[in-house]
Each structure stands twice: as C-alpha cells, then as structure tokens.
Amino acid sequence: MAEYRDFESRRRERIRKRRRRKKRIRAVIILICIIAAAVILFASLSKCTHNDNGQTSETPSASVEPSLTPVPEYTIPPASEENDLLNVLKDSGQTKRCYLTFDDGPTKNITPQILDTLRKYNVKATFFQTGSNIEKNPDIARRVYEEGHLISGHSYSHDYNKLYDTEESFRSEVEKTHEIINGVTDKEEFKLMRFPGGSYNAGDHASEKQKYKKTLKDMGFYYVDWNTLNGDAEGKKKNAQELLEYLKRNTSLKLNNLVVLMHDASAKQATADALGSIIEYLSGEGYTFHRLDDIEYGVEPSPSPSAMPSSSPNAE
Question: Which of 34, 41, 112, 282 is 20–30 Å from 23 (CA)?
Fold first, then answer.
C-alpha cells in the first residue's frame, strides 16, 4: 500500500511539473507576441511621422551619371536653314577654336589610346563612329561619351556602294546609326554626321552626295567635312613625326576655326602616337579645343583673311 502511495505521489508531482512547464512556455510565447506587436506598432508610428515630415524611411540609392564637361547650349541656325557645319563655323564670328575629329571607330586598340591622350591634355573632341563598330565595341563607345566627348554618325556600314546606293539606303544608315548612338548615351544626341569620303563634289558617288545633303537637311541633320588633316589616310603610311609635319604643312593658321580630320581605325597607331604633339602644336598657336556641338554663334567676327588649305576629298 505504501508503495502505491509513493508511486501515486510521484505521478502527481510529474503532472504538476508538466503543468508548470506548459504555463512557463505559454507565458514566454505571450511575452514574445506582446514584444512583436509593440515593435510593429512602433515601426508604423515612426513611418507615419516620417511621411508627415515629407521624408522617406529609406535612403534612396544614388544614380551614377557620367562625369561630363558641360557643353554650352548651341544657338546655331537650325539644320533646316543651314546644315553645312563648316559654313556655320565660318559665320559664327568665334576665333581660334579647334575641333579635333576622329573617324571610323570605335576600335579596341586605338580609341582607348586616343582617349588617354585627350584626358591627359583635358581636351574634348568629336568622334564620328560607324554603327557597326559601335555594336562591336559598345563599352568603348560608352567610354567616349562618359569622358565628355561628342559621338556623331559616320554611316552604319562605311560601305560606299551600300550607303550611297539609293536615298532610302542612305537615310536608313543615318537613322540606324543615330539610334545606336542614342542607345549608348541614353539620350537624344546632336544630329550630326560625316559623309564617308567627305561631301565633296568629286570622287566616288559625288553626285549622290550632293543630293543627300538635302536629305540630311530634311532629316534635321548637320554634316561637316574638314579644313585641315594630319594625313593619316593620305598616300603612303606615315609615322607620328610625319603626321605632325603633314598637319603643319596643311594647316592655315589664319583660319579662325580648324576642323581636323584624323582616324581611330585599328591600323592608325601613328595617329595615337602623334596626337599629343598635334595638341601641343595647335595649343601653342593659340587654339582652344572644343566639341562640334560647342559653337558660339553670333560673336562679332575678327578680321581674318579667307584661307582654306588643300585637302583630298577622299581622305578616308
């Protein structure tokens, strides 16, 4: 009998312990729920307070923008009135400005070297790029834009027979390349293109080019040739020193506005090598460097004799 009472006593003690343990667990759960509810209520009140003050509860992430040198808004005549940018420059009245231009890129080996030199001298330039090369090297085209240079069109294919075959083919290549450029910069770019081979009324497809000047005007595009060059597409292959000497011989320092033709195609290592010397020479002659969408139009012109150096219409 005594053993039964001991067993029953132990059983009851175990039951009491289980009940006490369950009560403690319930108390802990209730406490956790109360704390969670308090936290949620506090967060809601805090958010409402922030909203009432015109603030947000989160810190917005900063957007990354290219580091660009601001370019003044241009006030040149619209393309519908005059779309030959060389004529616009001659009529602008500004003095001692130089526009370095590079055709046929972007390329993996030469364009980055050109950009390194331009950055070293803090010079901005204009790159006339083909749509097909931008598609091959979009990262390099993006770098051109991010470092503050102007990207303009130089056709999509650079194939004279395809480009100049019909007005439709010409218009299509111009529009396609402009759309590709806008895709690189994420904005509507200045509507400027350079005819492969120049727009001169001589050489291959000369008559078609004269008609397509009006096509560009109807499309709202400017076009531009050049009035000096380094000769990197003229005659025999030249080294850096020869390119500098060629430019000196073919540059009229009487011109108020220089538009210099050069190339950043993959075979133009000498152009990359000569660029620093060319910048130093022209800077020493008093020229400042600008993009072709940076034209101070309407400045009172300084007296200057009209002079145009000879250049080949097919310097590409």
Answer: 41
Which SS3 state, helix, strand or coil, does residue 121 take?
A: coil
Q: How far apart are CA 109 and CA 15, in angstroms?
A: 85
Could you tell me the sign of the dihedral formed by the alpha carbons of 222, 226, 230, 235, in that order?
positive
What is the spatial distance between Cα 68 and Cα 209, in angstroms, rounded to a whole number?
Answer: 34
The count of residues in the chain is: 316
Range of the domain at 8: 1-57
Query: What is the structure's pLDDT at 35?
Result: 74
Tell me the average pLDDT across 142-166. 98
Pick the more confident residue, 203 or 161: 161
CB 292 within 8 A of CB 101: yes
Q: What is the largest CA-CA distance in the chain?
A: 135
Which of 57, 72, 101 represents a domain boundary (last residue)?
57
Q: Band the pLDDT of 256: cuts 50, 70, 90.
A: very high
